[in-house]
Amino acid sequence: MKILVNGIQSNLRFSSAHVIPGHESCGYIHGHSYFVDVEIEGERSGDFDFVVDFKDVKKYTKAICDELDHRLLVPVYNDLIDFKDFDKKKNSIFELQKQKSVYFKIEDKGYTIPVEDCVLLPLPYTSAEELSKFFAETLAKKLAETYDNLEYVAVCVNEGIGQGAEYKKVFE
After folding, report:
1. Which of 7, 23, 50, 125 has the fewest CB atoms inside 10 Å of its own CB, making it the most exposed?
2. Is 23 a catalytic residue?
3. Does domain 2-72+124-170 have CATH number 3.90.1150.10?
4. Domain map (residue ranges) of the chain
């Protein structure tokens, strides 16, 4: 059985700025008002014969949205972003998060941003595609702590009405 959670109606939203280095129009810092749709398939089980409790799905998804809300999303593992005093191949992203400010360059443009204004993501891009994968994998990991009956978790991160990307995380 499949359950669906509509992001607009369930208030699973966040507003963030991001940049996609090297892209003709998205290579500039810009923002979106995102909303997140969730689809989960699995066997019904437990005391109430649920696939999963909607309350859990919304709580865990909302927590991810809240973490990203009103921040600059920085894809730490993007090859076109050069960080000052941080080697992506040697250093942990946690070391970067401990700094007061993040210093990086994209081509000829240099940025200094307070860490508290950023979310440093272990991603190559902050596209809707990569964000949907991030959400699905994070949500699947959290749900797996409680539920062993799930077949997949699919998450669609929408940059606006009619424009989003979906990623399906299949449980093995």
Report:
1. 23
2. no
3. no
4. 2-72+124-170
